[in-house]
Every structure is written in structure tokens, then in C-alpha cells.
């Protein structure tokens, strides 16, 4: 499946965007609907959603938490190419910094499994990288989540969450629509510096 992350074709509309206002809300999901991370993990299993090894490991980490209040979250769906990157690949830190500069926010870790549960009509071949703060595995490897349908069923998988991880510009990311003004360049620079090495 990791190879499919790199070979998925780009959608037809890859026009660069100038601000978050240029992108419509793709999907609104609810978070905070489970009492704890264990009940959320159980719901994934009850719904027949597979969870890859790295994803299962970070879902079990103490740093993976769920919201204590039910909240609706507006998600956007975009590629690094739409963020203005023109090379074949771009680092994860640069994707995050540019998305935040345009007015998007990183998603809470809970968004990945909640999207998996609430997105059963995902097309075959679609892999959606959750723009989120990485969570480290027990061995210290930073991982982010990916909501995928590789053809063998709906799955939540983990992938490289290092700041310097190379991401194909045709990849698809999920970010949260912010109702705040876009961040200043100083804030964006500090966010990029905060991402784990």
C-alpha cells in the first residue's frame, strides 16, 4: 500500500490556491463522540475497518486522545500542488507551513479514525493523509495517519511523520478549515521549526 501512496494519479483540478477561502469544505465530521480512545478503536473494529500496524500503535499511545466534547469539524481536501509546490516531492514540514500560512489548521489526531468511521463511500485507490501533529511510536518513530481504500477494504494506516519526509505533490491531504485569519509568516516559521526532526 505504501507504493500506492506514491503512484496515485493527481485529480484534474490542481490549480494553486491563494487562501483558505479558495477551497470549499469537503466534508464535515463529528469528533468527541467516544468516551475514550479504546471505545474509538473498538468502533473501528466493529465497523469492519482495518487498522495497520503503525496506526494501531499510535492509537494505543497515551498521547493519542479524543475530544471530551462533541464538535463538528470542517475538513478540506487538497494536494501540495494546490498549495503551490511544483517539484515532484515536498517535505511534510513545508506542506504544513504553507497550509497554515493559507489559513488551514492541523487536524486533531482523532480526526483520522473518525473520518475512517464516517467515510464509508471512499473510492478505491484514494489515500488521504491527515495533516496532524505526528505521534511517536513506542520506539520513537513519528507517525501520521492515512485514511485509505486500497481495494482490499477500508483501512486506517500510518505513514512517515518526520518533518523531512518526502511527500509527492499529487498526494491528498486533509486539513481543518479555520475560522481564524491566516497565520503570519512568523507564526508559520515557528510552527515549521516545532515539527519533529
State the main characteristics:
two-stranded antiparallel sheet; alpha+beta; 197 residues; 26% helix; disordered C terminus
Give your account of this protein's structure.
About 25% of the residues lie in helices and about 25% in strands. The protein is of the alpha+beta class and about 200 residues long. The model is unreliable at about 1-10 and about 180-195 (pLDDT under 50).
Sum this structure up briefly.
This protein is 26% helix and 26% strand. The protein has helices at residues 2-7, 37-46, 53-59, 92-101, 111-118, 185-194; strands spanning 27-31, 50-51, 71-78, 89-91, 104-105, 126-130, 135-136, 142-149, 154-160, 166-168, 172-177.
Amino acid at each position: 500500500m505504501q507504493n500506492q501512496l506514491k503512484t496515485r494519479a493527481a485529480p484534474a483540478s490542481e490549480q494553486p490556491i491563494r487562501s483558505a477561502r479558495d477551497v470549499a469544505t469537503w466534508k464535515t465530521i463529528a469528533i468527541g463522540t467516544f468516551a475514550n480512545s479504546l471505545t474509538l478503536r473498538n468502533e473501528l473494529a466493529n465497523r469492519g475497518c482495518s487498522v495497520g500496524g503503525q496506526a494501531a500503535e499510535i492509537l494505543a499511545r497515551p498521547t493519542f486522545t479524543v475530544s471530551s466534547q462533541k464538535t463538528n469539524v470542517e475538513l478540506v481536501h487538497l494536494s501540495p500542488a494546490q498549495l503551490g509546490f511544483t517539484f515532484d516531492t515536498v517535505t511534510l514540514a513545508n506542506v504544513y507551513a504553507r497550509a497554515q500560512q493559507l489559513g488551514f489548521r492541523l487536524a486533531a489526531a482523532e480526526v483520522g479514525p473518525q473520518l475512517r468511521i464516517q467515510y464509508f463511500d471512499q473510492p478505491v485507490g484514494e489515500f488521504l493523509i491527515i495533516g496532524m501533529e505526528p505521534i511517536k511510536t513506542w520506539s520513537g518513530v513519528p507517525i501520521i495517519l492515512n485514511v485509505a481504500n486500497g481495494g482490499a477494504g477500508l483501512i486506517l494506516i500510518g505513514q512517515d511523520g518526520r518533518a523531512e519526509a518526502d511527500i509527492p505533490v499529487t498526494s491528498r491531504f486533509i486539513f481543518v478549515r479555520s475560522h481564524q485569519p491566516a497565520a503570519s509568516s512568523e507564526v508559520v516559521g515557528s510552527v515549521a521549526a516545532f515539527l519533529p526532526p
